[in-house]
Amino acid sequence: MHLGNARTALLAWLSARAGGGALVMRVEDLDGPRVRPGLERRILEELAWLGLDWDEGPDVGGPCAPYRQSERARLYAAALDALRAADLVYPCFCSRKEIAAASQAPHGPGDEVRYPGTCRRLSPAERARRGESRLPAWRFRVPEGRAGQVEVEDRVHGRVRFDVAADVGDFVVMRADGVAAYQLAVVVDDAAMRVSEVVRGDDLLPSTARQLLLYRALDLAAPRFAHVPLVVGEDGERLAKRHGALSVGELRERGADPRAVVGLLAQLCGLAAKRVRADPGELVEGFSLARVARAPAVLRGEQVAALGPAR
């Protein structure tokens, strides 16, 4: 977990605590290649080392268990069944390579390829024929025209409009291997877990428009959203290993003071004007998302170098 992830976690924690709410720790472990033994435990330990806690989660339980998405497949399957019954999804037999190669597939936000609708109007007979050789993914039918334009009321960025039909087209909600896509899983889980506020990085802001379409299609109440600017390196690019920034785990292992790390995170949030040492609880009083800087936070090498050992 790098400092950008930790900063977002701190902001979510502060917003929940300042509002008198509960924090839900959900493990989103549907992306198989990125799920490695011991990683979940390490991330939770690193968050606890920073002084963050949660009221529900895989390690503490809660009324909405289980809290690992890999254990919630039946809920996603039920949601897909509901979308199928309403004819709001359809089977798609296209590979990523075929979609990328389609001449009519321009790129949308984040260099994302727009789905050209190849399988949207296949006849039942053609679907059956293609299904003999390939398992399908399932795509959500994005409404055409104005109905495919979605306004997101964001607590950081204000009102933002997206044209989902023009930007990404029909999007996957269930992969061909039967694993729910991110868009469907988080919508189902946020509703089931009674999540009223989501605080996350603004690289996910375009995804929110897709999720709002799914909330409406499934007749579920959407939470409030706050998309905070990312932490970037001095070159303006999103934080990565090439910037030489130590992960939270590496800082912990070298004996850094967690209060100094939290102080740096507070700086990166725009909550502190200079280097401080603080526990998260000391930042709760007077906290508001309105205080968070609206520009990307720049992490400088000297800031990380100044994180000395605990005293």
Largest sheet geometry: 3 strands, antiparallel
Q: According to CATH, what is the class of the largest domain?
A: Alpha Beta
Structural domains: how many: 2
Order of helices and strands: HHHEHHEEEHEHEHEEHHEH
Molecular structure report:
It is a single chain. The two termini are 24 Å apart. The mean pLDDT is 91. Helices cover 34% and strands 12% of the residues. It contains eleven helices and nine strands. It has 311 residues and is an alpha/beta fold. The strands form four sheets. A three-stranded antiparallel sheet has the order 1-2-5. The longest helix has 16 residues, at 3-18.
Strand and helix layout:
Layout: H1 3-18, H2 39-50, H3 73-85, E1 89-92, H4 96-101, H5 124-131, E2 137-140, E3 149-154, E4 158-163, H6 164-167, E5 171-174, H7 182-192, E6 197-201, H8 205-217, E7 224-228, E8 231-232, H9 248-253, H10 258-269, E9 297-298, H11 301-305
Parallel strand pairs: 6-7, 8-9
Antiparallel strand pairs: 1-2, 2-5, 3-4
